[in-house]
Amino acid sequence: MTDPTETFLAFSEKLADSSRALLLSAAAEAPRVDLKQDASFVTATDRAVEARLREQIRAAFPDHGIMGEEHGSERLDAEFVWVLDPIDGTAAWVAGIPVYGTLISLAHGGKPLLGVIDLPATAERLTGISGRGAWHNGKPIRCRKGTALSDAYMTSSNPRFVPEADRAPFARLDAAVQFTQYGGSCYSYACLARGRTDLAVDAGFDAYDLFAPTAIIEGAGGIVTDWEGQPLDLGWQGRVIAAGDRALHAAALERLGPRISG
Description:
2 domains; 8-stranded mixed sheet; 7 helices; 5-stranded mixed sheet; D-Maltodextrin-Binding Protein, domain 2; 262 residues; 29% strand; Fructose-1,6-Bisphosphatase, Chain A, domain 1; alpha+beta; 15 strands
């Protein structure tokens, strides 16, 4: 049986072309912002982009499932499920800070198979197939290797969204690395896949925030798990740690774990 992964990846780039066109068209005007129950931003453009992508998926692959941030889930028990975040970094999008992007992923058997991070403001696109390769504007990329924890450059999202119970372990890790950069949205995960940073650690996330970056980082030779070292699946929510190097990942996990007295 022919492996359809390359066909799926080509289709995911067509989806990214659609989302980029909509985002660039909408970028000229300041959007009206609504607040969701979790106090995060959403705009009409978020909803319009996801609706357009879902239309294209249903037309091309009617037997596939879809999980999206704005319009819910359908057929999550399907063999293949598309996982969509129409604007990752909506607050950055609203402010005109160019770190927002569209995240498109295809899960197979509940695990990330391939992903796209499309960054329209900077005309960048990262693609990846888990365990097989990753690309930045068509050129192969690899994660950075061999960095010690004390020398690591870490990224993290807005600390406001980190649950109270997760702040103490995160603070232990933050104190152990060389530097932590906050607020880069999906661009931070793109930088990790390109070998520009070493760690990305967050909490309070959902599958649609991480499936595309996971496939790309794993394609670039990195590793992505929860804070217990378990892989992500469609039911995952909460805490994530991504690293370019497995030894660094293990060292960071140890810092995030329960502190042993004595």
